[in-house]
Amino acid sequence: MCEFVIMPPVPARPTELHELGRAFAQHYYTKICVGRQELDQLYAPDSVMTFEGLECSGREAVMAKLKALTFKSIHYSITSIDCQPTGMPNTVFLMVLGQLKTDEDPPHSFCQTFILRGFEASFFIVNDVFRMVLHNA
Description:
Distance between the termini: 28 Å
Radius of gyration: 15 Å
Low-confidence stretches: 6-13
Number of domains: 1
Helix content: 10-25%
Order of helices and strands: EHEEHEEEE
Strand content: over 45%
CATH architecture: Roll
């Protein structure tokens, strides 16, 4: 079972960059829920992901880590999505803050950051850093 909710944004004038971040997050977290194996299309051959302090370099290593996650069901509630240009052509910095709930575990806050690079009509993930926000652990 998968659920994905983006909380309404703080009232502000939406920008193209914000819409890009929102669309990417919706696509990414939906894929995590329903078909992690399809995420390989979003990572480049030289992508780097740090997941809870463990660095995975290259699409194959990233996908091995994502496929090894043991949850059977997941629910995401996205609190905020911040997006910035990086100063490099066709490259965007994206930070997602929210909560996730897996299986019978209680909800936990998380933060995930991405650097996305545009290629033709789409974007792929260059860098991905994921951390649960756990205190006193």
